[in-house]
Amino acid sequence: MVDSIKDLLPIVLVVVFFQFFILQQPMENIGELLIGVGFVIVGLTFFIYGLELGLFPIGESMAYALAKKGSAFWLLAFAFALGFGTTVAEPALIAVAKEASEVAASAGVIATSQEAKDSYATGLRLTVALSVGVALIIGVLRIILGWPIHYLIIGGYVIIVIMTNFAPPEIIGIAYDSGGVTTSSITVPLVTALGIGLASSIKGRNPMIDGFGLIAFASLTPMIFVMAYGMIIS
C-alpha cells in the first residue's frame, strides 16, 4: 500500500497544483474525492499484489513447462490464445471500440442503428485481439530462433507508414490508439511473464535481452490490422 501511495502521489500533486495555483479555484466535493483516492489506493494495492501472486507465476510457469515439453505447436498455440484472450477482455479496448462505433455512426461511416454500432465495435475488438495473438506468435518465434528484434520493429513501422497513406482517414486515429490499449492492465503482465518464462527456459537465451520485446509487437500489429480492417469495411 505504501508503494501504491508513492505511485499515486505525483498525479495527486499535479491535480492539486493546477487546481489551486493555475485555476485558483476551490476543489468541490473534497470529501468524495478523498474517498475516491482511497479506493484507488486500495484497488491498486490489491491489483499489484494479485499480479505478483498469480498472473506472473502462471505466465512464467506455463511458458517454461511448454518449452520443456518441446512442442513448438502447443507453445505457439498457447501464445496466440493468451494474446487473443487477454486482449479481447481488455477494458481499455472495449471502451475505445465502443467510442469508435459511436463516432463512426455519427460521421456516417456506418449505419446509426445499435446493431450496426455493436457489429463495428465487435469487429474492432476481434481484429485487435487477433493482431495481438499473431504478434505473440511472432515474438515467441523470435525468442526461439534468436531473430534480432530491431529488424522486426523497424519493418513493422515501415509497413504502418505505408498503410497510413492508403487507409481511410477515419480509421487511422483509431488504429494508432488501438496500439496503445493493448498495453494495459490485463495484457502486459501476462505477456511479459510469457516472454521472461520462455527466455529463461531456453538454453542460450538471456531473460533480460530476449525476454522482453513482446509488448512492442503487441503495440505494433494492431495498427496494421485495424487499418486493414478499415480498408475492408470501407
Write up what this structure looks like.
This protein is an all-alpha fold and 234 residues long. 83% of the residues lie in helices and 0% in strands. The protein contains 10 helices and no strands. It has helices spanning 2-22, 30-69, 72-88, 91-106, 114-145, 149-164, 169-181, 187-201, 207-210, 214-233. Helix 1 packs across helix 2, helix 3 (72-88) runs antiparallel to helix 5 and helix 5 packs parallel to helix 8 (187-201). The chain is globular and about 60 Å long. The model has no long low-confidence stretch (mean pLDDT 85).
Query: How would a textbook summarize the main sheet?
Result: none
Molecular shape: globular
Number of helices: 10
H/E element order: HHHHHHHHHH
Mean pLDDT: 85
Topology, element by element:
Layout: H1 2-22, H2 30-69, H3 72-88, H4 91-106, H5 114-145, H6 149-164, H7 169-181, H8 187-201, H9 207-210, H10 214-233
Helix pairs in contact: 1-2, 2-8, 3-5, 3-8, 4-5, 4-7, 5-8, 5-10, 6-10, 7-10
Briefly, what is this?
This protein is an all-alpha fold and 234 residues long. The chain contains ten helices and no strands.
Please name the defining characteristics of this protein.
234 residues, mainly alpha, 10 helices
